[in-house]
Amino acid sequence: MELVEVLPQLYLLRFNVGQAYLWSDADSLTLIDSGPGGSAPAIAEAVRSLGRRPGDIQRIIITHGHEDHVGGAAEAAGIPRGPPNPWPGRPSWIPRRPASGTAR
């Protein structure tokens, strides 16, 4: 796994297949996508290389359901972190909706 600083506070985690991103705030991390299955140890290592703890991951955002984006989510969710839904009263998963009637 390769760790690349894209912008201050934004890091790319490039796996053999797929990628993920880490957004770093002063007091927490957000994992954007989780890479393929088996990625959690590499994610934890990347977090430590930034001088943070895996438990600093407070949010996991999945952009879509392809294996290389969601495959490591179950493992990543096992990394000790905050509550599963940081937005109380709002869904933690946005359901897919059919396209409007104008699509053909």
Automatic annotation (TrEMBL):
The organism of origin for this protein: Kitasatospora kifunensis
Molecular-function GO terms, alphabetical: hydrolase activity
UniProt-annotated stretches for the region Disordered: 71-104
Keyword Hydrolase in annotation: yes
Metallo-beta-lactamase domain mapped to chain residues: 18-76
Record-given protein name: Glyoxylase-like metal-dependent hydrolase (Beta-lactamase superfamily II)
Keywords, sorted A to Z: Hydrolase
